[in-house]
Amino acid sequence: MLITALHPVPLAPEISLHLADAEVGLFDAGGGEFRSDEPPPFWAFVWAGGQALARWVLDHPEAVRGRSVLDLAAGSGVVAIAAARAGAARVVAADVDPAAEAAALRNAAANHVPITTGDEPAERFDVVLAGDAFYAPSVAGRMTQVLRQHARRGARVLVGDPGRGYFPAASFDLIATYAVPVPAALEDAEALTTGVYEMRPR
Questions:
Q1: CA atoms of 127 and 62, how far apart (whole Å)
Q2: I want to staple 183 with a disulfide (CB 3.0 to 4.6 A). Which of 22, 33, 44, 194 is the partner?
Q3: CB 45 within 8 A of CB 22
Q4: According to CATH, what is the number of the domain 4-199?
């Protein structure tokens, strides 16, 4: 069983999340092995792309204030919580892992902000956010397709990415860069240069 405790987010200390210890790796709860029958606990860590995007939203509240916001591949919910803190009228955190959605709700409660959860709602949102969602080829392809669909419905689409190999950079414009502190157990580094990007209209 993975044990978590409430910790401030390094790049966005206004937000605290229930996180695994900094010495714990993604697969440690499974004995160091990947198990196909159970998703890894991505929600127990605050990833570089999510941190950067959350920081940008907190620093640019006008981007979400009074608007409906969808956080895709929400994980811990850090980006959804940032949007709620910044004054979004409605925030939905969506993740394919029910444990992640439960974690996002628990973290939102710890930060005294309201969010709801849902699996990739097809409705129209004003802003769609995704932090560190391009970590595998199959996920990246699906994520790009879904984000493009939301953009076609009129959403402003913003993502945070630390240079993952599957990020479709040609579809985005860089709008900010951060040096994001990360646990060495996750990234084999103490910080990652991470961009915030906006999807280009088509």
A1: 11
A2: 22
A3: no
A4: 3.40.50.150
| Predicted TM-score (pTM) of this structure | 0.93
Show me where the domains of the chain are located. 4-199
Q: 52 Cβ partners below 8 Å, 6+ apart?
A: 11, 131, 160, 162, 176, 178, 180, 194, 195, 196
